[in-house]
Amino acid sequence: MRRITALVDHELTWTQPSGLKSQYELRFGNELVATLRFPKTLGSHAVAEAEDGSWRFERVGFWKTKTIIKTGESETEIAAYETNVWKGGGSLIFPNGRKYVMVANIWKSRFEFRTDADETLIEINNSSVLRLSATVRMYRKAVRIPEFPMIVLFGSYLVVMSRRDAAAHTATS
To answer: Against a cut of 0.85, is the pTM above it?
Structure first.
């Protein structure tokens, strides 16, 4: 596997190899770069692994959700993502106060992580209906951020969770 940081300026693709499993792969051409898997099909807990490291994501809360991010097997929280229901996105906040804003379009087919100065760091465009297929574009300025690989994987987690939320909403309507 190659490091995510080595693939800036290239387009990567998230795919779901099997519609029957909650597992996703980030690829550069045919090369596997990272994985995202949900141990429980309907749960919000996910594990992301890449050459750059491994992280765990888990959404908590009901009305105002928050996603906790931990490194590998550690129980230490390294970041938290707080949703902003009214603006269709949220903020990824680190303990040192650094913050990145995630914005999504109304259809939740495009996600962007931006700096406080409104510079786009990462774009994820979801282009599928049934199984996940999304392209990831990473901008060079993102490389200077130490958490950059985790943010790429977390953005994909948000894409999967938004798809699940939409499916649950449709099923209850």
So the answer is: yes
- Tell me the domain boundaries of the chain: 4-172
Residue 30: phi and psi, rounded to 5, are: -90, -5
Just give the CATH number of 4-172.
Answer: 2.40.160.200
Task: Write phi, then psi, for 134 (nearest 5 degrees).
Answer: -140, 145
The angle at the Cα of 100, spanning 96 to 102, to the nearest 5 degrees, equals 150
52 burial class (0-12, 13-18, 19+ CB within 10 angstroms)? buried
pLDDT greater than 90 at residue 68 = yes
Which of 44, 22, 5 lies closest to 35 in space, CA to CA?
Answer: 22
74, 68 Cβ separation under 8 angstroms = no
3-class secondary structure, 129? coil
For residues 41 and 112, give the distance between their C-alpha atoms in angstroms, rounded to a whole number.
26
